[in-house]
């Protein structure tokens, strides 16, 4: 029954104790320990084994099932060892090809044996007969065809599909799903949701007349109930986090009368804040003046002016007698922030400290002591700021730049580090996050519902749109001439490469040109120009020197890796060349493109690509070529990569959403958001049970 202890997952008489423990460990990695875990372990896709297709009628590229007699079966060597068999029925012949096989496979395909094969046929080599590569093979002796679609589940080595199907069918028999449903009847009726027991049964054991396409694409109405429950659990979890934060105490960082550091900073800046920056700053000011912790994300496109907002927030905290910390995911970005903000705040009698992992031990200890004693009013650094040895005297504000680029564990550690060390006696610091990767609305609703989001949707005046060009590497000489032309007009250029140095270990279909190799090659091609090199493996002093020389105009062309994605700000740079552009993600390409176009001259971004292009690479380059709007780039990036990777959570090994799609289920996201508030106010016990059932370990990922 629903409340019974989970049954053993050992097949009777099949496993000894050791094998059972091994299988249990494998199941645990899949998150399968209880009956309910198995019930919610839903199919990835479905296969139609209910009918046979004549070999001559097999569709190309579509999975289907055929049956015939094995005409031949032999091991051949065509570049590699492979097993090739021929299958015949009354309509024609089909080649079965196995690039990886065991002796049992060859035995199964004995000549004269009648077998069923399931897979996607493809056109044969050199116009020959159609073939299936690695089809599923089943020996048949007048075996009856299944009466319903066959579910295919996520699994791992040592957990066969057949075993999973039987185990899930047992859970369907044993569990009283209706009694264990965590969704109150009032919610189900209001949103016209189906019965959970019926939905689970229909998805695990599809009816004979079920629509294969609708099930596989998760358009079937039974999927709606599942996706709603998952999204609802997510929304409840996020709102619970918000409510818990609202009960915490934070420093009141209200504006003081007179010439504060904030007012002096605004007066001394060499530019005026845009309307969008002023609006966002007012929102942050209001947050800081409250006695509850700010939890705000400021997002804006590349070059929209987020750094100055961070500086103003830090100045407000310092005016109120508290410390501020700014953390960035890479040392080069952290150093860029340090130099720029220190230049702004030094005239205001603010001590800005630098703390990074690569500091000499003595320098690091000195910096840590200054932070602990309160002498350092603003601390800028990398994840070294959340190391155990760093203690703040009075931390009132934490600023995290490009927070999605930190690993999940690092972000969770940061949040834990912001909690009062004395168990709640000290106030919790305010948290301000910055992102140059605009986050689409549905993603923000799904993963950032416990955040307040501000958007800088206006670029500073004088910025010119960047013209993007797609150029094959076969035309590299033309690009070099373009570089020469830009330099002749008094401007500068970047040449970005994906690797630091050539690596024989990198198994890729193309030879990725390394930064060091490209530096030598381009310098030899255009020896009259002044060339510089910048990559992450250079000593910090050399990196800083290269950056300074380029910023001063003493270098015409800077050959670099992606460290400049968030680094040097040079208004005179008007040309960005990206080598092997098909190897970069959309967000990276957009960030790199944003390094130019910061001055009054027309700027260009040249994407050098290798042929042939994969479909995915072609799609990415098409998006970046057609779209300059950061929010549209982000939306398309989300479509391509999915929310886990987009937010830097893929490395956790836990999928952020298993069933729902932010693109396809946007309406469900909004319904779940509304239902979450009802659940928390009217059905708090059911809300807690719902989160436990549907989120599990993923709930912690949302806090990151």
Question: Can you describe this structure?
Answer:
By secondary structure, the chain is of the alpha/beta class. The chain has four domains: 17-46 and 151-217, no CATH class; 51-145, Beta Barrel (OB fold (Dihydrolipoamide Acetyltransferase, E2P)), CATH 2.40.50.140; 261-447, P-loop containing nucleotide triphosphate hydrolases (Rossmann fold, 3-Layer(aba) Sandwich); 466-627, Rossmann fold, CATH 3.40.50.300. It is 39% helix and 17% strand. The strands form four sheets. Strands 11-12-10-13-14-9-15 form a seven-stranded parallel beta sheet, with helices on both faces. It has a six-stranded parallel beta sheet with strand order 16-21-20-17-19-18, sandwiched between helices. It has a five-stranded mixed barrel with strand order 2-3-4-6-5. Helix 12 (306-319) crosses helix 13 (331-345). The longest helix is centred in the N-terminal third of the chain and has 26 residues, at 221-246. It is globular.
The gist of it:
The protein is an alpha/beta fold and 704 residues long.
Question: Can you lay out the helices and strands and say which pair or pack?
Answer:
Blueprint: H1 17-29, H2 35-39, E1 45-47, E2 63-77, E3 81-88, E4 93-98, H3 103-108, E5 114-122, E6 131-133, E7 136-139, E8 150-152, H4 161-174, H5 177-180, H6 185-190, H7 196-204, H8 212-216, H9 221-246, H10 261-268, H11 275-288, E9 295-300, H12 306-319, E10 323-327, H13 331-345, E11 352-355, H14 361-373, E12 378-381, E13 395-401, H15 408-418, E14 430-435, H16 441-447, E15 452-456, E16 466-472, H17 476-488, E17 492-496, H18 515-525, E18 531-534, H19 540-552, E19 557-560, E20 573-578, H20 586-593, E21 603-609, H21 615-626, H22 630-641, H23 643-646, H24 666-682, H25 684-694, H26 698-702
Parallel strand pairs: 4-6, 9-14, 9-15, 10-12, 10-13, 11-12, 13-14, 16-21, 17-19, 17-20, 18-19, 20-21
Antiparallel strand pairs: 1-8, 2-3, 2-5, 3-4, 5-6, 5-7
Helix pairs in contact: 7-9, 9-24, 9-25, 10-12, 11-12, 12-13, 21-22, 24-25
């Amino acid at each position: 029954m629903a409340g019974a202890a989970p049954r053993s997952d050992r097949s009777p008489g099949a496993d000894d104790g050791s094998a059972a423990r091994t299988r249990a460990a494998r199941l645990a990695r899949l998150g399968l320990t209880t009956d309910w875990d198995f019930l919610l372990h839903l199919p990835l896709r479905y296969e139609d084994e209910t009918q046979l297709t004549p070999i001559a009628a097999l569709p190309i590229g579509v999975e289907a099932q055929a049956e015939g007699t094995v005409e031949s079966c032999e091991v051949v060597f065509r570049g590699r060892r492979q097993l090739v068999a021929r299958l015949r029925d009354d309509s024609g012949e089909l080649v079965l090809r196995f690039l990886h096989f065991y002796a049992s496979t060859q035995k199964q395909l004995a000549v004269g044996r009648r077998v069923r094969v399931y897979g996607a046929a493809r056109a044969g080599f050199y116009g020959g007969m159609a073939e299936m590569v690695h089809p599923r093979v089943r020996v048949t002796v007048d075996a009856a065809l299944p009466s319903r679609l066959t579910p295919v589940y996520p699994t791992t080595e040592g957990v066969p599909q057949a075993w999973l199907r039987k185990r899930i069918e047992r859970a369907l028999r044993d569990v009283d799903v209706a009694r264990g449903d965590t969704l109150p009847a009032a919610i189900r009726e209001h949103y016209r949701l189906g019965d959970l027991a019926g939905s689970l049964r229909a998805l695990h054991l599809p009816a004979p007349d079920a629509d294969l396409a609708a099930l596989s694409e998760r358009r079937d109405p039974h999927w709606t109930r599942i996706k709603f429950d998952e999204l609802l659990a997510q929304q409840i979890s996020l709102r619970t986090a918000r409510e818990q934060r609202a009960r915490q105490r934070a420093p009141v960082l209200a504006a003081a009368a007179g010439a504060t550091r904030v007012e002096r900073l605004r007066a001394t800046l060499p530019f005026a804040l845009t309307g969008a920056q002023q609006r966002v700053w007012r929102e942050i000011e209001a947050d800081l003046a409250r006695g509850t912790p700010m939890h705000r994300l400021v997002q804006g496109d590349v070059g929209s002016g987020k750094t100055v907002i961070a500086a103003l927030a830090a100045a407000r905290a310092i005016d109120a007698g508290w410390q501020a910390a700014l953390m960035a995911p890479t040392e080069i970005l952290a150093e860029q922030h340090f130099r720029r903000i220190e230049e702004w705040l030094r005239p205001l009698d603010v001590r800005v400290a630098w703390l990074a992992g690569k500091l000499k031990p003595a320098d690091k200890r000195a910096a840590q002591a200054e932070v602990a004693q309160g002498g350092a009013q603003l601390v800028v650094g990398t994840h070294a700021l959340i190391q155990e040895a760093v203690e703040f005297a009075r931390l009132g504000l934490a600023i995290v730049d490009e927070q999605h680029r930190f690993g999940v564990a690092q972000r969770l550690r940061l949040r834990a580090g912001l909690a009062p060390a004395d168990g709640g006696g000290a106030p919790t610091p305010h948290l301000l996050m910055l992102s140059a990767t605009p986050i689409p609305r549905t993603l923000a609703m799904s993963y950032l519902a416990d955040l307040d989001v501000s958007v800088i949707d206006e670029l500073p005046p004088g910025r010119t749109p960047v013209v993007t060009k797609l150029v094959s590497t076969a035309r590299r000489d033309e690009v070099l001439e373009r570089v020469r032309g830009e330099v002749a007009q008094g401007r500068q250029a970047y040449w970005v490469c994906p690797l630091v140095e050539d690596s024989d270990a990198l198994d890729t279909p193309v030879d990725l040109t390394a930064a060091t190799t490209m530096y030598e090659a381009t310098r030899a091609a255009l020896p009259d120009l002044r060339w510089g090199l910048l990559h992450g493996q250079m000593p910090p002093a050399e990196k800083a020197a290269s950056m300074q020389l380029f910023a001063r105009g003493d270098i015409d062309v800077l050959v670099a890796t992606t460290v400049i994605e968030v680094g040097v700000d040079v208004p005179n740079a008007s040309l960005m060349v990206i080598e092997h552009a098909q190897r970069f993600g959309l967000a990276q390409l957009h960030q790199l493109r944003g390094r130019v176009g910061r001055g009054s001259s027309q700027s260009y971004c040249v994407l050098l690509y290798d042929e042939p292009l994969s479909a995915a690479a072609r799609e990415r380059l098409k998006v970046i070529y057609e779209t300059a709007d950061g929010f549209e780039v982000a939306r398309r990036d989300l479509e391509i990569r999915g929310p886990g990777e987009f937010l830097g959570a893929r490395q956790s090994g836990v999928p952020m959403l298993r069933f729902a799609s932010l693109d396809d289920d946007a309406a469900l996201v909004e319904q779940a958001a509304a239902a979450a508030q009802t659940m928390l106010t009217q059905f708090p016990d059911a809300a807690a049970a719902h989160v436990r059932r549907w989120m599990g370990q993923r709930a912690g990922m949302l806090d990151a």
